[in-house]
Amino acid sequence: MVDSVVIEMANKLAEECLAVQAETGEDRLFMRMGDVLGASSQTLEEAFLTAIRTRMANDQGRRFLAQTLKAHRAQAAGNE
Questions:
Q1: Beta-carbon-side half-sphere exposure of residue 5 (alpha carbons within 13 Å)
Q2: Can you give the pLDDT at residue 49?
Q3: How buried is residue 76: exposed, middle or buried, by Cβ count under 10 Å (0-12/13-18/19+)?
Q4: Can you tell which superkingdom this protein's organism belongs to (predicted)?
Q5: Where are the domains of the chain?
Q6: Which are the contacts of 14, defined by CB distance < 8 A and separation ≥ 6?
Q7: What are phi and psi of 19, to 5 degrees?
Q8: Vertex 31, ends 61 and 45: CA angle to 5°?
Q9: Which of 29, 34, 51, 69 has a CA between 20 and 30 Å from the CA of residue 18?
Q10: Rounded to whole angstroms, how far apart are CA atoms 43 and 54?
Q11: By C-alpha distance, which of 58, 60, 59, 46 is closest to 10?
Q12: DSSP secondary structure string, 9-62?
């Protein structure tokens, strides 16, 4: 099991990395960051990539729900 300290570090790095990605527009920065981490600690690299993937999946899920609701409301408004 991964130590809670490693998970905490990975979560902080993931948040910072996603912020830099958003500002720079470099959408694969997290992959380069994973390579940097993996050169020193495979454990931290794996925890970081998990943290990134779950956040990215969460964001995609939220966008999907928002788009679905928007389409539903537009259709409902058109039927009035």
A1: 0
A2: 98
A3: exposed
A4: Bacteria
A5: 4-78
A6: 30, 48, 51, 52, 55
A7: -65, -45
A8: 95
A9: 69
A10: 17
A11: 46
A12: HHHHHHHHHHHHHHHH--TTHHHHHHHHHHHH-HHHHHHHHHHHHHHHHHHHHH
Tokens linked to 70 = 């928007």
The two structure tokens encoding residue 10? 């990975």
Cα separation, 46 vs 32, in Å, equals 13
pLDDT for 39-66, tens place per residue? 999 999 999 999 999 999 999 999 999 9
> Which amino acid does the sequence have at 18?
L
